[in-house]
Amino acid sequence: MTDRSPVSLSEDEIAAVRSWVLHEDPHVLVLNKPAGLSSQGGRIKAHTLDDLLWAFMRSNGKRPELVHRLDRDTSGVILAARTKPAAGFLGKALQMRRFKKTYLALVSAAPEPRAGRIDAPLLRQEIGRESYMRVCAFDAPGAQGSQSRYRTLSASEDGALVELEPLTGRMHQLRVHMAHIGRPLVGDPRYGGALTFAGRAAPRLMLHAARLTFPHPEGGDRTVEAPLPADFDALRLAAQL
C-alpha cells in the first residue's frame, strides 16, 4: 500500500465518498464514482478519488488503493483494495484479465450489426498536453492489441442504449472502438460524439461502468452493480430507451 501522507478532507468530502460505497468488506472497497471526478492525479487542482480514499484510512495509517481507473467523465463501479495482500491479488487478477467489466453507453443510432466484436489495435498519441488513442495497423510501431464487445439493448429514432465489454484495458478503448465503427459515444467530442441527444444537451460523456465481476481474495467471484446516474437516465428516458 502507498505510504503517501494523508490528505486533509472536509466533512462534506468524507460524507460524499462514504455515500458512494457499493460494497465493503475487510479486503475490498467498491465505490460508485460520479462523473467529473478524476480517479488519480491530473492537471486539475482538486481532490481525486485516490485522495478521497483517505476517508477510509485504517488505524495503521494506510488507506485503500485503487486497483483500476475510470476516465474522469465516466461514472460507475470502481474497485479499491483495503490491504497490501488484497492489492497484490487483485493486481495479478487484473493482469490475467479475470475482471469482467460491463458498461452502458448512449449512441446516436444503433450499431450495424446490432451486436459484435471489435478487434482494432490502438496507438497512443500526445497532442499538446492531451493524450489520445487512435486505431492503427496491427504491425504499427507501438500498436496495442485491443478487443471490445458491444450489444444493442434498445433503440429508437433518437438513438440507442448499448452494453459494452472491454476485453482488454487500453486507455479510452471503448470510446475509440465505438467511434471506429461509426457510433461515437454521446457527449464525447474528442472522438466525434454528438453533444445533443433526443433534443437535449449531453452534459458529459455518456458512459457508465454498470457492473464489475472480479475474483475475491477470500475465494470465488463477486459481482457489484452501480445504478444509472440521474443525468444518464434522463437522456435515456428522453429517447424512450
Automatic annotation (TrEMBL):
Signal sequence residues: none
Domain Pseudouridine synthase RsuA/RluA-like: start-end pairs: 27-180
Gene Ontology biological process terms, A to Z: enzyme-directed rRNA pseudouridine synthesis
Database matches in SUPFAM superfamilies: Pseudouridine synthase
Pfam families listed in its UniProt record: PseudoU_synth_2
Keywords associated with the record: Isomerase
Isomerase listed as a keyword: yes
Top EC class, one word: isomerase
Single annotated GO MF: 23S rRNA pseudouridine(746) synthase activity
Annotated EC: 5.4.99.28, 5.4.99.29
Protein name from the UniProt record: tRNA pseudouridine32 synthase/23S rRNA pseudouridine746 synthase
Record organism: Brevundimonas alba
Lineage, opening ranks: Bacteria, Pseudomonadati, Pseudomonadota, Alphaproteobacteria, Caulobacterales
